[in-house]
Amino acid sequence: MNTKAVVFKEVEKRPFVGSEDLSVHQLTVDNSLFSTQSKYEITQLPAQVPVIKPDPDRANPKIGISALAFSADNRFLATKNDNMPQSLWVWDMQRLGLLAVLEQTAPVRCFVWDPRRPRLALCTGNTKVYLWSPAGCVSVNVPVEGGFQVQSLFWHCSGSSLVLLSKEHICLCYVEAEDEK
Question: How far is residue 128 from each of residues 124, 138, 169, measured CA to CA in Å?
Answer without folding.
Answer: 8, 10, 15
